[in-house]
Amino acid sequence: MTGLLASPRLDSVEAIAAHIDLLVGMDPRLATVRDRAGPVQPRITQPGFVGIAKVICGQQLSVASARAIWSRYELLPGALDPVTYLALSEEDVRATGFSGGKFRTVRVIAEAMAAGDLDFDHLETLPADDAVAYLVAHKGIGPWTAQVYLMFCAGHPDVFPAGDLALLKAVQHGLGLDARPTIAAMSVIAEFWSPYRSAAALLFWRYFAVLRDRDGILL
Q: What is the pTM (predicted TM-score) of this model?
């Protein structure tokens, strides 16, 4: 446990398992969810410009579609650096599968980084709510994008993307709720799991995948 406290990033199976154990101690309802989900793997990707571009790429897409588009995008010369991205045409970026809106959002990020107005190293020093606010101040970045970036690129231990549909469905099923929670209600539920909200999100995403794949349940 000492190592976890010294490095709270959720970047290993052991760190996630330790946080999930703490969650179950706080909320015994999660014991069954943990048992059905099984081991939860870390999902850490490169931080900074590449990471935020990858999260933006995946907005409102299936995992398979996002992966296919990203595989084309990352081969585009200049696409992985904020300065060289600014020299790319919308036509070139959209040819990889990006929408016009996603092209413009990534451009806003690239411009802010080039101007020194967006510092991802500084972002990682901020508490979760401040870090989300820091990101959503940039046009095109909403709470879901900011929260997913913090989880998967920064390894932040206390973030819960309450607007994620899979999480809303999984929490309804896992907690035996009569109805799917609203985003506002989900945020309130997740507050109880702080400071381990990221582990809760990873657990419920895994729970969702296991039920879908093993039992054929369409949540």
A: 0.84
* Residue 162 to residue 34: CA distance in whole angstroms: 19
What helix, strand, coil percent values describe the chain, rounded to 5?
A: 60, 0, 40
Cα-Cα-Cα-Cα dihedral sign, residues 203, 208, 209, 213: positive
Distance CA 41, CA 74 (A): 24
In one letter, which amino acid is 190? A
Amino acid at 138: H
Number of Cα atoms under 13 Å in the Cβ half of residue 67 = 3
Q: Are residues 106 and 198 in the same domain?
A: no
Q: Are residues 113 and 180 in the same domain?
A: no
Closest to 97 (Cα-Cα) out of 68, 117, 118: 68
CA separation for the pair 24, 208 (Å, rounded):
18
- Which tokens sit at 89? 């045409």
Angle of helix 48-57 relative to helix 100-115, nearest 10 degrees, comes to: 160
Determine contact, residues 103/69, Cβ cutoff 8 Å.
no
pLDDT digits (tens, 9 = 90+) for 172-207: 999 999 999 999 999 999 999 999 999 999 999 999
Q: Which of 152, 185, 203 is the last residue of a domain?
A: 152
The reply to whether 219 falls in a domain is no
